[in-house]
């Protein structure tokens, strides 16, 4: 790719960043890095009524946690700043005026009440009201008024919007990297509002102007913007500007595969749909996040990469560098990608195994008050024994609590299975063996116990099941002799004596 690649992620600060937005940011980031380009963050806050305090900081923190930080944006390498649309509003009116001057746009003075009347009137007759070529000369705008009337209305301070003048009887030929060639009949397009009566541009005008001024080479965005592609291409043509290349990513679907994954689905189905925990400024909206639920950012990114893209191989595990090297927009699917909460757990389990035991031990210790006085090196040794069965740091306590505290109860089903006639006497003999055995290593203790079992022709299950029950409280956990070595000879004997006295 010869052109200077510049892509942008342009979220609205109206609340927490949905995981679908993170996927869009990721694909932009991967594309930029693959071609040594620039990943731009632009905050599209033209809708001030929906602006939420703190949402921009949440977006930036989310991108940083996911290890996909922007190269250029608010307060960072502001080559084409400012990067908040509310701080650029002085720019947009002049471009709207250019479109009016060239005949590609017009003033519309229709009131909200008038438009609402037309909509309801059409609905009554089973039709849909569209403001475009077939009725604009009958409505209240600069196309149906004389130049003197328009001037008088403007001088009088009448409210107006500026609408794009969609062409009649034309066929638009659009290109999309993912979806190929697209044909659109202009007769079905409405005359979209470009500039609102409050003096702010709509998304359509602002994003075209900003993409042009910021020299964006590729617009990679969600499928929901595909219906706007026709207008956006027409705006580039109207200004006489070269349009960027477009790529519209497939929808992320609910776990059922039906319908778009929404912000409410996570709370309803019990899994996060936001990268970070979110609490609204008023405290009336609280949603769980992947970070706080114990997911590793590497797992989240690896999972999201496969929502709509595939490398063309059987490989599923990709670190960020590998994703950058493998990523190709040509391999992004058109059809929606089903969100699988179990699959992201699978990824998290994999990345759990790659984490340094020392890091996991610190995280585990900080998460449990019961570990406050336990030596970190001991905790690290425990982690090495149970890590393979863990998906989250929060799993460690259930998998390893018996390394730190003796069982107070014993699984009823396991107890009936492990304790039979003669078990008490075997356990008492076992205490003698353990007390006299060399406990300098796991192997010496194991050799002593297994040697006693073999030489006395005792069934292994008759000893090992009640022994495990004594140590763990259930018939589960890592190797029995790892547990004995870790908790020590004295604690082992104490636990066996305890299980004998109870069972």
TrEMBL record:
This is Glutamate--tRNA ligase. CDD domains: GluRS_core (cd00808). The keyword Nucleotide-binding applies. Monomer. GO terms for molecular function: ATP binding; glutamate-tRNA ligase activity; tRNA binding; zinc ion binding. Residues 4-346 form the Glutamyl/glutaminyl-tRNA synthetase class Ib catalytic domain. GO terms for biological process: glutamyl-tRNA aminoacylation. A motif ('HIGH' region) lies at residues 11-21. Belongs to the class-I aminoacyl-tRNA synthetase family. Glutamate--tRNA ligase type 1 subfamily. Keywords: Aminoacyl-tRNA synthetase, ATP-binding, Cytoplasm, Ligase, Nucleotide-binding, Protein biosynthesis. A motif ('KMSKS' region) lies at residues 260-264. The keyword Endoplasmic reticulum does not apply. One of its GO terms (cellular component) is cytosol. ATP binds at residue 263. Residues 374-500 form the Aminoacyl-tRNA synthetase class I anticodon-binding domain. It catalyses: tRNA(Glu) + L-glutamate + ATP = L-glutamyl-tRNA(Glu) + AMP + diphosphate. It comes from the Bacteria.
């Amino acid at each position: 790719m010869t052109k200077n690649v510049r892509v942008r992620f342009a979220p609205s600060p109206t609340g927490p960043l949905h995981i679908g937005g993170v996927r869009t940011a990721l694909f932009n980031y991967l594309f930029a890095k693959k071609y040594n380009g620039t990943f731009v963050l632009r905050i599209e806050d033209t809708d001030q009524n929906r602006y939420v305090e703190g949402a921009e900081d949440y977006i930036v923190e989310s991108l940083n946690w996911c290890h996909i930080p922007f190269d250029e944006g608010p307060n960072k390498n502001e080559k084409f700043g400012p990067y908040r649309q509310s701080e650029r509003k002085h720019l947009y009116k002049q471009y709207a005026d250019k479109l009016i001057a060239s005949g590609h746009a017009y003033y519309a003075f229709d009131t909200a009440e008038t438009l609402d009347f037309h909509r309801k009137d059409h609905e009554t007759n089973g039709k849909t009201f569209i403001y475009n070529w077939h009725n604009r000369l009958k409505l209240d705008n600069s196309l149906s008024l004389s130049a003197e009337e328009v001037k008088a209305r403007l001088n009088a301070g009448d409210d107006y919007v500026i609408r794009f003048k969609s062409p009649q009887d034309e066929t638009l030929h659009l290109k999309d990297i993912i979806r190929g060639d697209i044909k659109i009949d202009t007769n079905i397009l409405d005359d979209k509002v470009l500039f609102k009566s409050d003096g702010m541009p709509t998304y359509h005008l602002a994003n075209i102007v900003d993409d042009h001024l910021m020299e964006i080479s590729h617009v990679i965005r969600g499928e929901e913007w595909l219906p706007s592609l026709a207008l956006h291409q027409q705006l580039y043509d109207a200004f006489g500007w070269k349009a960027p290349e477009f790529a519209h990513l497939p929808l992320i679907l609910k776990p059922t595969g039906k319908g778009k994954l929404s912000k409410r689905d996570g709370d309803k189905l019990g899994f996060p749909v936001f990268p970070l925990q979110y609490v609204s400024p008023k405290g009336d909206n609280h949603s769980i996040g992947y970070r706080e639920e114990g997911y590793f950012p590497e797992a989240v990114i690896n999972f999201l990469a496969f929502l709509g893209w595939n490398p063309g191989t059987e490989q599923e595990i990709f670190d960020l560098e590998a994703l950058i090297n493998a990523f190709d927009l040509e391999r992004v699917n058109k059809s929606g990608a089903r969100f699988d909460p179990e699959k992201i757990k699978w990824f998290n389990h994999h990345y759990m195994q790659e984490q340094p035991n020392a890091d996991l031990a610190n995280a585990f210790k900080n998460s449990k008050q019961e570990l406050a006085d336990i030596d970190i090196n001991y905790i690290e040794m425990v982690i090495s024994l149970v890590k393979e069965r863990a998906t989250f740091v929060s799993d460690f306590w259930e998998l390893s609590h018996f390394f730190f505290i003796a069982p107070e109860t014993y699984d009823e089903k396991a107890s009936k299975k492990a304790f039979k006639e003669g078990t008490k006497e075997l356990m008492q003999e076992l205490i003698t063996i353990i007390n006299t055995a060399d406990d300098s290593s796991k192997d010496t203790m194991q050799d002593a116990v297994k040697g006693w079992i073999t030489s006395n022709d005792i069934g292994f299950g008759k000893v090992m099941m009640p022994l495990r029950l004594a140590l763990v409280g259930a018939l589960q956990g890592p190797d029995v002799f790892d547990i004995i070595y870790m908790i020590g000879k004295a604690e082992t004997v104490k636990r066996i004596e305890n299980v004998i006295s109870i069972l």
